[in-house]
Amino acid sequence: MRSLFALCAAALFAAALPAQPTTEPATTPPPLDAGASVYQKVVRSTVWILSDRGGGRSATGSGALVDKGRRLVLTNYHVVGDVKAATVFFPVFNGTKTVPEKKYYTDRAAKLGIAGEVVELDKGADLALVRIERVPDGVPELPFAAESPDPGQAVHSIGNPGKSDALWVYTPGKVRQTYSKKWQAKLDGSTVAFQAKVIETDSPTNPGDSGGPLVNDKAQLVGVTQGGAIGADSISIFVDLSEVKKLMNRRSVLALRATADAKDPPKADPKKPARDAPLASKDDGKFFSADAFKKVQPVAEKLLKAKGIDLLIETHQSLPKADADKLKAMPGPERTKVYEQYAKDRTKELKTNGLYVIATKAPPTLYVIVDNSAGFPADFGDRVRSALLTNFANKKFDEGLEKALTLALEAHSLAEKK
């Protein structure tokens, strides 16, 4: 299943080309506020976890997918305890909105629940890794921040509070301090001692939020929800990113990854062959300068090598194998269907897995298609299209291309730091 984004409009190249019928308003929708934008990027990677403690007892918590290739979900040790099995739920979407009602998932547990095995524990830092049987299509892994957050920095968390009837609940906050901490907690009738570097925030947390992701404004993981400070108001504790990185770099985890690669390789999709080199983009429509278009292939190579994702951009004077005059005369919605079908046929022919952009000058049309299995954010196609349109309409074709390439790299944390 693919997400499709299209525009057949005069506003596309209004400053450079003759007017054509429009199918969308020329105004750009207002950007999402920081919290809503971060939530949309992170929620797909966030999970609800159920662990059976035996004797009819169960525990619930939260977690996040941190290694898609190895199918590893990060959570707290106290969420899974010493059991070896857990059940993981990813959010279901109604359009772009999450289905938050807990009952929806419990009623469909047999279908929506994904079995997982606890494969690694850091009891001292209250961390655990759960390896799940499969990752649903379109779910990206959550990228790590480069470093721990500073006091005063805005942070965001998503969790599944047990007392709420809703899942994937959002909470904003500010970092109060990061420091080393020792503490104790009750777990399955026993007292457990913890010691780790933690992040203290002013954001409230509740039982069930434990194990969920704490992220920065770039939707990058900076910590893992541990819980609220007992007897204190507006103080919550999160296990710091540095502890997570230690866990992920353990020899046993590295060996687990190697074993996973050797014994349980990802199944090849016959529709999407492995490529040794990226697909060749082309600017037959002469939209861009030669220097600007030279940047496309290096980005495509980077995406393919790091994530196995295709990037293909094709421009033409007119749509191949189509009558330009007939297309010009078509109402906008009909023309959109023609481009949609062309894009579908083209990506099927090339067996692409990623981002495909086609643009023509006669008639002036832009079409963007994103494969959900490539792990791009839900709003990625809209953002690429908006970046191209905004700059194209002002004859800033090279700037639009550069912005689109940057978005593709940032979506997978591959952009170079400035």
Key attributes of the depicted protein:
about 425 residues, alpha+beta, Diaminopimelate Epimerase, Chain A, domain 1, Thrombin, subunit H, six-stranded antiparallel beta barrel, 12 helices, about 25% helix, elongated, disordered N terminus
Describe it for me?
The chain is an alpha+beta fold. It has 2 domains: 2-30 and 270-410, Diaminopimelate Epimerase, Chain A, domain 1 (Roll); 32-266, Thrombin, subunit H. Helices cover 27% and strands 32% of the residues. The chain has 12 helices and 19 strands. The chain has helices at 34-42, 77-80, 102-106, 109-112, 241-248, 251-263, 290-293, 296-307, 324-329, 332-350, 380-392, 397-410; strands at residues 2-8, 46-54, 57-67, 72-75, 85-89, 93-94, 97-98, 114-122, 127-132, 154-159, 169-187, 190-201, 213-215, 221-228, 236-240, 282-283, 310-316, 354-361, 364-371. The strands form 4 sheets. A 6-stranded antiparallel beta barrel has the order 2-3-4-9-8-5. It has a 6-stranded antiparallel β-barrel with strand order 10-11-12-15-14-13. The protein has a 5-stranded mixed sheet with strand order 1-19-18-17-16, with helices on both faces. Helix 11 runs antiparallel to helix 12 (397-410). The longest helix has 19 residues, at 332-350. The chain is elongated and about 75 Å long. 41% of the residues are buried. Residues 3-12, 14-27 and 265-273 have low confidence and may be disordered.
